[in-house]
Amino acid sequence: MNAQTPAGTGRSPHPRHSLAPLLSSAVRLSIVAALAPVEKAEFASVRDLVEITDSALSKQVTRLEEEGWVAVEKGRVGRRPRTWLRLTEDGLARYRRHLAALTVIAGPLG
Hints:
Layout: H1 26-35, E1 41-42, H2 43-50, H3 54-66, E2 70-77, E3 80-87, H4 89-106
Antiparallel strand pairs: 1-3, 2-3
Helix pairs in contact: 1-2
């Protein structure tokens, strides 16, 4: 059996195999979805958009960063420290693959 066709069936594997386990968490999915359409976003903006606490966002961002999906940049605006988040190329590609798989699984709407 290979990754393209299940043994003996002659057809492609079920699209669920393209789902990213990292995005099984609704919070992580929400964070990645918030970052996908922008170049980068301030930590506080993502926190407010996803409606979670600083500590919850920090924990999930750490997990996404460990997997290479999110890059974290620290700096200052004036005298105030700021943290910006952005999806990496790999993170964006994996997110798009995940969405495509969900769309195939759900089938046409309407």
